Amino acid sequence: MRTLKDNILRGFLWFAAFLTVAILVTIVGYIFMKGYRLINFDFIFGDYSPTGHGGIWPMIITTIYTIIISLIIATPIGIFAAVYLQEYAKQGRLVRMIRFATESLTGIPSIIYGLFGAVFFVTTLKLGMSIISASLTLTIIVLPVIIRTTEESLKTVPNTYREGSLALGTTKLQTLYKVILPSAMPGILSGIILSIGRIVGESAAIFLTAGTVAAMPEGIFSSARTLTVHSFLVTQESGDIELASAVGIVLIVIILVLNLLATFISKKLNKANY
Amino acid sequence: MNSIETKLNKARTGKITPIKQDSEEKAIISVRDLNLFYGEKQALFSVSMDIQEKEVTALIGPSGCGKSTFLRTLNRMNDLIDSVQINGDIVIDNENIYQTNDVIKLRTKVGMVFQKANLFPMSIYDNVAYGPRMQGLKNKKELDKIVEESLRGAAIWDEVKDRLKTSALGLSGGQQQRICIARAIAMKPEIILMDEPTSALDPISTLKVEELIEKMKKDFTIVIVTHNMQQAARISDKTAFFLNGEVIEYEQTDKIFSMPNDQRTEDYITGRFG
Ligand SMILES: Nc1ncnc2c1ncn2[C@@H]1O[C@H](COP(=O)(O)OP(=O)(O)OP(=O)(O)O)[C@@H](O)[C@H]1O
Ligand SMILES: [Mg+2]
After folding, report:
1. Can you tell me the ipTM of this complex?
2. Does the keyword Nucleotide-binding apply (chain B) (predicted)?
3. In ligand 1, which atom is closest to the CA atom of B227?
């Protein structure tokens, strides 16, 4: 009886795992099959031309811009906020409210953020439809993600580390820098990886704040088009699934490379501890 | 000190014992009327105790009677808990530790070893050098010297000298606990507090730590919490019996284990409760 139950459960678990992988492989495989024929040097590094199949280099650059700018702003603010909430603030009603607010912010559809960005950054702050407006909007979108994951990973740092360090006559700040943050680093990094995913995957909010100009941006104050927005527009305008899929492949590769990079950095940082 | 009495005492107990119980000059720690509250709940009731320099003082008593709480008042680790309220005096080295703000200095003078080994996820070397480094010591030669001395002092140098740069978390539980002791020694404290340091160790590791404590007492004043009566009897000079937050009896260890004054002490020692 026991073994039967055990086997059923195991079968179910196996099936669930199989299904997950199968769906993933199907999607990636489908996009790859559809789009790979278009991928070549000119497609990736070529400039865009509105007539026919131009390159997507401007969109790649725009995408990378938005990732870098929003992470540069969101990461330190997010980590500081989480450290404050978890390590310094008295755990009272105010902190609970802030926590509830960040949690709720994670669930808001990004179009709302897009509308806010369009009103506040684009119009009120007069930043115009631009990479910077989009990046600031994206910052607000990923900030709760970084705060949450950092808080969670700070929670997993055993209290015995804090006590052990403080009992050796160190200050709270030293304990934070030398023991707590390094131990929490893998979790913080996974938050950053999630954020990259969120940024790259975003279309609506960027569409409303950076616009759709399909040209090489002159700087962060230019209007421009990210890969995701491009893929969306291409599908919508011409129904060219092949082109959209090719863009999808590039997106997947970018995310993969960035994730590998983040994992690599995390390993390096961990090594530095030894 | 009266030499005839001393000799008599020595003949009787095999140790030199001070004539007066609370001879103030020799006490390195003097506790007077210490009350401690966790919020509304009182955990220590008017505790008074003089702890002598270069002796091992054992704290025994049933679970929840306040041994750890008392121990952690001596290096102000209770400060980490928001709800704790303390009144009374603790004088260490002629300084009232609850009237200074220099907790850092106090903790460099009063080291602590915890129930479970709590080494940081760093190399053995970095763990032992952690305290001195945080005090600002950078000189490699000096650090090397401190690390070696401390590891020798904790009787574990020979076991780890060839793997100082490997992770400390790869060691056995008993070895880790001795590294924790080395880490405390590296600060060159006057007093070392130990909270059930052997309760998570096997008998052989326990024996090693006990031998170590016996050896250490020529350099340090040691206050140790233990649930193990034999251990208290074996290694301590004085023993304090706690019950429900009060010190019932504080006496020479030989005396407390041979003819306790209080019935409750006797009941506890003979295993009739607790
Ligand atoms: N952080 C805390 N908040 C509230 N009450 C606490 C806290 N820590 C300890 N107490 C309470 O204070 C009393 C003394 O606890 P303490 O840990 O000092 O006992 P102990 O003698 O060390 O016990 P044990 O032998 O089990 O380690 C207990 O009643 C305990 O429930
Ligand atoms: Mg305890």
Report:
1. 0.85
2. yes
3. 25
